[in-house]
Structures are given as structure tokens and as C-alpha cells.
């Protein structure tokens, strides 16, 4: 399949006739997968180092795009999710696809539309900008006329932007994992794990700034070393160490 060919499985693929024993494959402990289900290989680029880092997810063509959005790992989201920043948007095949699962989610497409109204010269770069956004929970890749190797967009936590590429589309076969619960399937596991700068053994879980006990700033600690360095024998934070900042540390992708 060439990179510029349009692909929309929604009009080409039909399940086998009702009653056919091969209509679905059922594996113990998993949801059934319909034969002739399509699989999409989606590459998600790093927001700031897109030429060097990426992650690959294998996505069922029939699954809602919210599943893909939730499966994308981003350190920015890990830091900011506790502040209620759960809004997400995709721009795929000339459609703004917005996460509307929560009534408080922000429709990021409104900001884009505002800019396009103000600067008409930008409109050719965003065909479909004047069409209403669609729900991410009710849209799947197989329903979209996607193109291979064409840049699409995923936006979350305000202004964190990831470029998406559909790298391959194919039908499932019996060598694939047959449980729907396993998808989207992350194919790359390349987290860079920062080690604790004290023991140099365990993975860092905390990062401090302005820490008087640190040998570097910022300073990375595992849970054990952080506790030993900052708390007394009674489990109380030592009073001389109150004026510093500490945050959970999440690995970069």
C-alpha cells in the first residue's frame, strides 16, 4: 500500500455472515475480536524531540480514538493531570476530533478556528476548519479516510502537540493477539529511567530543587534515599530542610 493512497476500511470490510463459527475468535479471559478487523500502526512523535524519539501503538481500526489518546505516554501529562488538564484533540483527515467525555473538557479546536477566522491566509492549511468537531469517543480510525505517512496532530494538556503518522494498515491474522483488551498495544518501551544520584542503583522517583541536602540541582532521589536524607528517626521532616521544592519524577519517553 503506497504512502499517498487513501484508506478507509469502513466501506470495504464486512464481518462474516451471522452464525459462521469463524466470525469471531474468542480467547479465554479476553473480549472477542471480529475477523477482518483492521490494525493500524500509529507512530506518535515526541513533542520537543520529534526527529529523535517516538512511540508506536498498534490500534484496532474499530476502537474509539479515545483509547489511542489515553494510551499515548507523555511526561507533560503525567505532571499536569493532577490539575485536571484532561482535554484532548486530534486533527486527522481534515476533521477536528475532540474528547468530550467530560463536560469540563476544553474544545481546543475553538482556538484554532478563532485564529483561522482572524488570519484567512492560514485556512488552506486546515481544510475542514469550518466543519463542526466530532466526538473522539464516537470516532474510529477505520471510519476516517486516512493517508499513510501523512502528519496528523494530537494536542493535550493545553499546548503539548504530538505529530501522528499512520505507518501501516493491515488485516488481523491468527498470529496477532486476539483479545481486544490488549489494544492499543504499545510496541516501543524506551523510557529513559533516571537513576537515583545517591545510591546510583534504583530508579529516581522524586526530583528536588533548591535542596540543601543535594549534590546537584535539580537532584534525583529514589524513595529510600530521599527519606533517609530528609526525615529524622521519628519520620518528621527535618526543620532545616523545609525551604526546597520536591515533585514526583516521571521518565521521559
UniProtKB/TrEMBL annotation:
Similarity section: Belongs to the SNAPC3/SRD2 family.
GO CC annotations, alphabetized: nucleus; snRNA-activating protein complex
Entry keywords, A to Z: DNA-binding, Nucleus, Transcription, Transcription regulation
Official protein name in the record: snRNA-activating protein complex subunit 3
Location in the cell: Nucleus
Organism phylogeny: Eukaryota, Sar, Stramenopiles, Oomycota, Saprolegniomycetes
Example GO BP: snRNA transcription by RNA polymerase II
Molecular functions per Gene Ontology: bent DNA binding; core promoter sequence-specific DNA binding; RNA polymerase II cis-regulatory region sequence-specific DNA binding; RNA polymerase III type 3 promoter sequence-specific DNA binding
Originating organism: Aphanomyces invadans
Highest taxon listed in the record's lineage: Eukaryota
Keyword Transcription regulation appears in the UniProt entry: yes
InterPro entries from the UniProt entry: snRNA-activating_su3
Coiled-coil boundaries: none
